[in-house]
Design brief:
Length: 198
């Protein structure tokens, strides 16, 4: 039996979301068809508002409704520090830690030649412009500790080395509350390499 065309269209659209396969998309679409609480209507309005109102901050590339986000407008933040992250979820995690009070720059991805994402696609010229204009004294490269994140950090290190600023990389290793016995070999090796004086 063939499903109605609008239902198939919704399943295809939902299947394109990260982490949503065809079965999950079908389950969500059927829920929305049977919805009596107005979830489908609210979802539609929320998606339209998202596309109409949310944009990238002109300074840090964070998501905002204003030309410049609230973090970039905050006078209490440390003007000496810039933390470079891969995306908005990373920024939320760093902010939640409460340990960083400087400014941010979001790359919205990481270098990945296999996926066709090179330096040109990431618009790294904006980052250089931001660093030059704000005169940061330290840039923290906080890309993820995976192959793409490491490649991105190394590329940024080469690219930014001519700016005569302090470059640092976030440490990575054994998580707080973790045990060495259950830590994978690569994480354990990195924690030994990035050890600090105690």
């Amino acid at each position: 039996m063939k499903s109605p065309a609008p239902l198939e269209r919704l399943v295809r659209a939902l299947s394109q979301l990260p982490g949503i396969g065809e079965r999950s998309a079908t389950r969500l679409a059927l829920f929305l068809v049977k919805d009596e609480k107005g979830v489908a209507d609210e979802l539609g309005r929320a998606l339209i508002a998202l596309k109409e109102k949310v944009r990238f901050c002109s300074l840090c590339q964070n998501l905002t409704e204003e030309p410049v986000c609230s973090l970039c407008r905050d006078p209490a933040r440390n003007p000496e520090l810039l933390c470079v992250l891969e995306g908005p979820a990373d920024l939320l995690a760093v902010e939640k830690s409460g340990e960083f009070r400087g400014f941010y720059y979001l790359l919205h991805g990481a270098l990945s030649p296999l996926e066709g994402i090179g330096p040109e696609e990431m618009k790294l010229g904006r980052l250089v412009k931001r660093i030059r204009e704000a005169k940061f004294s330290e840039v923290i490269l906080a890309t993820n500790p995976n192959a793409e994140g490491e490649a991105t950090a190394l590329y940024l290190k080469k690219m930014l080395s001519s700016l005569k600023i302090k470059l640092s990389r976030i440490a990575s290793g054994v998580p707080v509350g973790g045990t060495l016995e259950y830590t994978d070999a690569q994480t354990l090796a990195r924690s030994l390499l990035t050890r600090r004086e105690f």
